[in-house]
Amino acid sequence: MWNVNKEYQNKGLVYTFAREFRFVFVEEPEGYSVDAVKKIAEKTEGDPAERQQEPDVIPENIIMIMNESLADFESTGDLQTDTEILPFIHSLNKNVTYGKLHVPTFGGGTARSEYEALTGNSIQFFPAACQPYELYVRDPEYGLADILGSQDYEPVAMHPNNASNWNRSKVYVRMGFDEFLSIENWGDEFCDRVRKHYYSDATVYDKIIKMYEDKEEDQKLFTFCVTMQNHGGYTEKYDNFDEKVRLLGLNYPDVNQYLSLVHESDSALEYLISYFQNVDDPVEIVFFGDHQPSLSSSFYPNLNGKGLSGLTEDELEDLYTIPFFIWTNYESTEVELPITSINYLSTLALERAGIELPAYNQFLADMMETIPAINSRGYYSKSAGGFLHIEEATGEEADWIRNYNILQYNNMFDKKEKSEVFFPYLK
User: Fold this and answer.
1) Fewer beta carbons under 10 A from the terminal one: N or C of the chain?
2) pLDDT digits over 391-401, tens only?
3) pLDDT at residue 415, rounded to an integer
């Protein structure tokens, strides 16, 4: 599912269609109807003033960075290294919401996490192993770009690699981004590379800063950036990358390279935050990884004591967690969220910014109170005190999950009766 168009060209229509056919149709969820959507809307709608307090500051610039393969092994395992891996991220404790995000993929599949972060939808309700960017984003797509565009932000997407990767050149337009900066139109500036060909996080952040400095004084920006620096694999040696982190007592060259890369990401992030700490405009930065890296399978027993098999649901979910934070350069309350998931991230970002939540995001905000995390593997059950499969949900938890499925189906697949309450921008 990496590049469907190329698959058709190389393998032919019959072969490719046969492989993809199982993903084409998404079943209507049990209990789905237009009336069911309306009933959910009646429960969700309310006076926004009662739900959200008027903020003192609303950011004029929102920067959302999905950092390739960034994981926090210091928090999820017991690694001994000669250098602290993520010292800056661990030091953030002021004006920040932070914690762990549960994501829908492990070792790859970037666009699955990206899709959830931007739309609020969940991969849980699609066929296993599907890629929504390749299959389902065919019409205008409700999400953060449209929401912020309606609030007079200019939505700009950035990815220092091929625009066609994961079909982004087509998807971003449907999501409401006004501009997409890819390697094809990146320009000659800000092109420093690590490991021969990947643009460094530092040079990408320099470009973000330049965009901020060049914008009109009264222009509000929403910048969504997908980095490339830490992309796998990690086995080759490169003249233009100095590895600064080593495991103690273990010999895994790929792990050493990976940890050195995310250490560089941490340094670049400190540079970016330091810059925006000193600007006058209010700024919100949303930062997160897309998935954990794919490393030598024999390394994992040293990380979690078991490896990649024989894991409980909670232990398996540890492989599906990445760090995140939402930081502001103005005074805001510190909040730790030890358990949440990436489908809630856009809602958390809007709440942190003090922007009135549209109905769909308000539904997700309400759902978080009962279902704090949900991903492709299952959901966190407060009643059980751990992760369960969706089929095991009962009572109020099952009701929330069913209603979520109904709304997502209405959003994605009900072309004639799409809810104007939940998805007004799609009209």
Assistant:
1) C
2) 999 999 999 99
3) 85
